[in-house]
Amino acid sequence: MKYKRILLKLSGESLMGDKQFGIDNNRLAQYATEIKEIADKGVEIGIVIGGGNIFRGIQAVEGGMDRVQGDYMGMLATVINSMALQSALEGKGMQTRLLTAIKMEEIAETFIRRRAVRHLEKGRVVIFGAGTGNPYFTTDSAASLRAIEIEADVVLKGTRVDGIYNADPEKDKTATKFDTISFDDVYAKGLNVMDLTAFTLCKENELPIIVFNMDKPGTLLKVVAGEKMGTLVS
Prior knowledge:
Layout: E1 5-10, H1 25-39, E2 44-49, H2 57-62, H3 67-91, E3 96-100, E4 109-110, H4 113-121, E5 125-129, H5 139-149, E6 154-159, E7 164-165, E8 177-178, E9 180-181, H6 183-189, H7 196-204, E10 209-213, H8 219-225, E11 231-233
Parallel strand pairs: 1-2, 1-6, 2-5, 3-4, 3-5, 6-10, 9-11
Antiparallel strand pairs: 7-8, 10-11
């Protein structure tokens, strides 16, 4: 395996599968299978998952809700998704730990960096819930921050498309894909990889990002093994 310790970032929307809302159990089971494949190879895995399939803080603001309140509700949505993923992983026989940025002692451990690293060293899959614990920060930012804190080799951003394109491939059939691209080129071209806070964190800490299609079975294993899949930002 090319990467020994990874931070896998999943979107909440991806958990919906073909549904309009909530969690698709088939999609959850598929992700658990993919993650088990790389865990069985000895890869240390941290995971951050969004909450957009349940609640988005930004949408709440559009409806007239207070932004801070909306963001905290979004953080709780990520915990629901994290618990669902934790259950699916444990159903496959994996050891997991859920660490949250907001104290929820009955259901999860509170995030402490050294504890998280220790869990990883013991071969447990560590899921980081509740974002950074602060409003105005996305789960992309949480993924970048946790990746840096646990000294991950790479951030793997699982999406519905197989990399970064010069236009939206779901809308523009002529869009061309980048196999590799520099952080500076992403800025210059105005490409939407992660939000700027998350992206800048990775750039400043020289942490590569790979954007790939998580919905295509077997791709995660190939990415971790070092095969040229998706788009590498470095």
